[in-house]
């Protein structure tokens, strides 16, 4: 069966748009990341970032390959537990942790990184509830990142990020003393900081800052240096106008810095990575049938079911790699430029901007690749049903990973009078 006929058969069952999961890409990315860092150091823990894409199948693949679950909310914590994770293989981060969840995570020996003084209050309440137990927590450290032009490299160009503890404030020492007085062990420092450029310089800064905080405050019980995520992964050629660092580049940069620190060299703590986009971007494609083609004032528009929320919910301007899948091989080159647009009622529902396509026809399919980061978790119920997710094996047999949403799914959580 041709790929077109396979997609046509799928569309007749699951609708005119759907995602295709590439499990082999995801697994390879994880293994390549592990290999790159283990060449430098053998005590590396990888925690897959659930917030980036929590398709249960991907989370299960991670679990089967010794990857921890990195979660940042009550919902994600419950999902990890539902998928069979034990608490001691869960890294619990995020700015809003409910006290009941902090309690469960502490009792289960999760790696938990506090983000604020209000969470420290919760820890104090829990210690009072269990006076005979010794608890261990990590602290997320607020970072300042500067790019090559001397400007802030924090995501969105923010001068000051909102996450973690400000170590330049005297109150931070009070927090350490408070935990010490409670008998709580500080066993981790967490440095994840989302950046706009994902540069090696950022990771040098993060690593150096964690070492400096450890040394300045004599935190001798640190078991985990958590570098966080924000790496480039495998990048399609020409997608952005720069050469991006490899996993090996990140590993070399991080450990070149760590190995200059005497305490790190002597005590050999674990190093934690929390990849998301870098391992999952090329693990998902979006496929949609071409529903209509029209021209308005010399501008060509190609309409698909679904739209920008399915492809790039952050509304970035990059044209992702794509391919046209037609019933018949195109024998002539008749390329024209098209805006590929979605089926919502927004003018800004622009999926691909002014791209060259050879003689597309209604009922052809367009496959847009590298859509694994944040699409599934940020796709709203906006105008269209949430699409199915399938995987295709080497024999061109497809398996359903998620069913297409139905009207009953849509209204199931509402109270109807």
Automatic annotation (TrEMBL):
Essential cofactor(s): pyridoxal 5'-phosphate
Which key words tag this protein in UniProt?
A: Pyridoxal phosphate
Domain of life, per UniProt, equals Bacteria
The record, for InterPro entries, names: Ala_racemase/Decarboxylase_C, De-COase2_N, Orn/DAP/Arg_de-COase, PLP-binding_barrel
Domain Orn/DAP/Arg decarboxylase 2 N-terminal: from-to ranges: 28-280
Q: Which Pfam families match?
A: Orn_Arg_deC_N (PF02784)
Designated name of the protein: Orn/DAP/Arg decarboxylase 2 N-terminal domain-containing protein
* Organism of this sequence: Mariniflexile jejuense
């Amino acid at each position: 069966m041709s790929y077109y006929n396979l997609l046509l058969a799928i569309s007749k069952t699951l609708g005119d748009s759907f995602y295709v999961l590439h499990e082999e890409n995801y697994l390879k990315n994880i293994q390549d990341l592990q290999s790159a860092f283990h060449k430098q150091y053998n005590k590396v823990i990888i925690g897959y970032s659930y917030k980036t894409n929590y398709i249960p199948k991907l989370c299960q693949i991670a679990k089967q390959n010794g990857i921890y679950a990195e979660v940042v909310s009550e919902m994600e914590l419950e999902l990890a537990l539902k998928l069979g994770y034990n608490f001691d293989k869960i890294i619990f981060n995020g700015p809003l942790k409910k006290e009941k969840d902090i309690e469960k995570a502490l009792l289960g020996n999760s790696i938990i990184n506090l983000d604020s003084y209000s969470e420290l209050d919760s820890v104090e309440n829990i210690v009072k509830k269990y006076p005979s137990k010794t608890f261990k927590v990590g602290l997320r450290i607020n970072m300042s990142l500067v790019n090559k032009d001397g400007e802030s490299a924090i995501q969105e160009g923010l001068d000051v990020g909102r996450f973690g503890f400000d170590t330049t404030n005297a109150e931070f020492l009070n927090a350490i003393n408070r935990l010490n007085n409670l008998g709580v062990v500080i066993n981790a420092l967490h440095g994840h900081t989302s950046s706009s450029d994902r540069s090696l310089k950022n990771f040098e800064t993060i690593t150096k800052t964690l070492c400096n905080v450890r040394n300045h405050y004599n935190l001798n019980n640190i078991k985990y240096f958590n570098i966080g995520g924000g790496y480039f992964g495998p990048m399609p050629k020409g997608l952005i106008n720069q050469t991006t660092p490899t996993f090996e580049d990140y590993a070399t940069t991080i450990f070149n810095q760590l190995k200059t620190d005497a305490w790190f060299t002597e005590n050999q703590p674990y190093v934690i990575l929390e990849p998301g986009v870098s391992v999952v971007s090329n693990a998902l494609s979006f496929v949609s049938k071409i529903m209509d083609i029209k021209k308005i004032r010399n501008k060509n528009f190609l309409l698909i079911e679904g739209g920008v929320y399915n492809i790039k919910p952050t509304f970035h301007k990059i044209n992702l790699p794509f391919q046209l899948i037609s019933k018949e091989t195109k024998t002539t080159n008749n390329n024209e430029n098209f805006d590929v647009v979605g089926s919502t009622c927004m003018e800004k529902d622009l999926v691909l901007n002014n791209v060259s396509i050879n003689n597309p026809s209604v009922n052809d399919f367009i496959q847009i690749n590298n859509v694994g980061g944040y699409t599934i978790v940020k796709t709203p119920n906006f105008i269209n049903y949430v699409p199915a997710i399938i995987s295709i094996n080497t024999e061109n047999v497809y398996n359903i990973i998620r069913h297409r949403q139905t009207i009953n799914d849509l209204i199931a959580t509402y109270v109807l009078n």
